[in-house]
Design the sequence.
């Protein structure tokens, strides 16, 4: 979306929602991405079913940085509800509590054979012995991070979020909502059936869908269908060590053909707490959480108040100024504390429409700090309009005196979504060179709904080539 936030899509951030029966033409401007990206609806929880893959192949005259695979298959993980997903959302907003969890996970639209369905179906991938397949894996699940594995087969991870990584072999994937993983699978086992299995990771007491989805690897050829199909082994559902060990193995190629440019001279530092919180409710609302409260979420103790008009259009129409609608999110939480160790901190937060404003060309560092407030868990943070470098991650409170010395500034992964660890931190860097109004949020839909988000405004540069493009004539109307 280079210089083109008009096609980014989050409702009331870059545009008003597309009305029933309406249409909107997305113009996608790629820069250096190669690999797998994805698109999805960004209105309430509609991305549960409105999503798809974007496959970016090497440019003509270039090749993959690995042997060209024999096959290419997209695999999408998704949430499935028996109820209308919008009804699930609206019911939770009425009570102020956790939404009902999904009823199943699907792999390419199929729940698999472990669910109590009258006609359960299972996705299967046909492979030939000796051939290698590029699996483009997308996690579009609404509210859970996931483990994925294939029985008796290792996978070689070669990319994430539209960028190549140094290849590494693994027997499981850890993937958050919003992330993509490109992996190579070689059919090097005895011709038979093998289960692919998808199961959640969660190391907190929050509600979640504790079910498992299965799909099949089927080898071609003549053989007897096995009476018992091998199943992979997994990390434990709450194995945060395995989750983090996977994350730290992701590293950019950082070679001559695929260079990276990690910001070294930081001009803007932001320390951002991510928390699940509470709002007090009037008795008449029927809120049911810890008395008359409802669940909320925040960044630096601010729960983002969703606008009722498109901020991007307002910004453009008011000579690139939004001061009449928004305030500025502070660079650090209003009250420092021992973020991951102190119990019984007040869970209440404040609500406001606070944004982050950056100058064009700023070299930005954001440290996301998990807290011990409310329901502590991982938070998959996502920034629109940018890929960024994950330069560090760790447990406990971030130490500004020692932790930056351990940052990876040589070959950090270039991604657009990261898992901020429960009671831990993650540090990212990027250069603010894509002007516009960009949404930043947790990719757990319930947390975004509760306010764990903000908007990043990157000012125009000094030239037309470093400024936002003008809007198209067909933006969806707001009334």
Sequence:
């Amino acid at each position: 979306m280079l210089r083109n936030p008009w096609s980014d899509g989050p409702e009331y951030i870059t545009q008003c929602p597309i009305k029933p029966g309406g249409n909107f033409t997305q113009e996608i401007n790629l820069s250096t991405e190669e690999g797998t990206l994805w698109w999805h609806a960004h209105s309430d929880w509609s991305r549960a079913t409105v999503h798809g893959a974007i496959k970016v192949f090497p440019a003509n005259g270039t090749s993959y940085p690995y042997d060209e695979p024999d096959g290419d298959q997209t695999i999408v993980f998704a949430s499935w509800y028996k109820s209308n997903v919008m009804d699930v959302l609206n019911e939770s907003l009425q009570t102020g509590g956790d939404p009902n969890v999904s009823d199943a996970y699907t792999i390419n639209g199929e729940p698999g054979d472990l669910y109590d369905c009258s006609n359960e179906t299972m996705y299967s991938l046909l492979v030939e012995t000796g051939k290698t397949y590029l699996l483009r894996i997308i996690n579009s699940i609404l509210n859970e991070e996931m483990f994925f594995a294939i029985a008796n087969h290792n996978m070689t991870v070669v990319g994430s979020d539209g960028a190549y990584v140094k290849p590494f072999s693994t027997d499981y994937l850890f993937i958050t909502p919003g992330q993509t993983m490109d992996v190579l699978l070689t059919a090097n086992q005895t011709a038979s059936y093998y289960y692919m299995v998808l199961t959640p990771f969660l190391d907190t007491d929050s509600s979640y869908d504790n079910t498992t989805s299965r799909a099949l690897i089927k080898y071609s050829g003549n053989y007897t269908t096995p009476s018992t199909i091998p199943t992979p082994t997994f990390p434990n559902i709450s194995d945060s060590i395995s989750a983090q060990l996977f994350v730290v193995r992701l590293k950019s190629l950082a070679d001559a053909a695929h260079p990276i440019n990690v910001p070294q001279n930081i001009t803007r530092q932001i320390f951002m707490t991510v928390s699940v919180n509470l709002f007090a409710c009037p008795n008449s609302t029927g809120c049911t959480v810890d008395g008359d409260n409802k669940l909320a979420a925040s960044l630096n103790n601010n729960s983002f108040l969703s606008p009722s008009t498109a901020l991007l259009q307002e910004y453009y129409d008011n000579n690139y100024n939004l001061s009449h609608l928004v305030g500025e999110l502070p660079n650090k939480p209003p009250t420092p504390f021992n973020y991951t160790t102190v119990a019984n901190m007040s869970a209440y937060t404040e609500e406001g429409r606070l944004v982050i404003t950056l100058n064009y060309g700023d070299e930005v560092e954001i440290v996301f700090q998990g807290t011990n407030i409310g329901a502590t868990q991982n938070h998959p943070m996502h920034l629109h309009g940018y890929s960024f470098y994950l330069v560090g991650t760790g447990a406990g409170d971030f130490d500004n005196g020692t932790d930056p010395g351990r940052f990876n500034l040589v070959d950090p992964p270039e991604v657009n979504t990261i898992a901020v660890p429960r009671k831990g931190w993650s540090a990212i860097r990027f250069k603010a060179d894509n002007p516009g109004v960009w949404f930043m949020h947790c990719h757990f839909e319930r947390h975004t709904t509760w306010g764990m988000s903000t908007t990043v405004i990157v000012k125009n540069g000094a030239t037309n080539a470093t400024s936002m493009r003008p809007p198209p004539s067909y933006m969806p109307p707001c009334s």
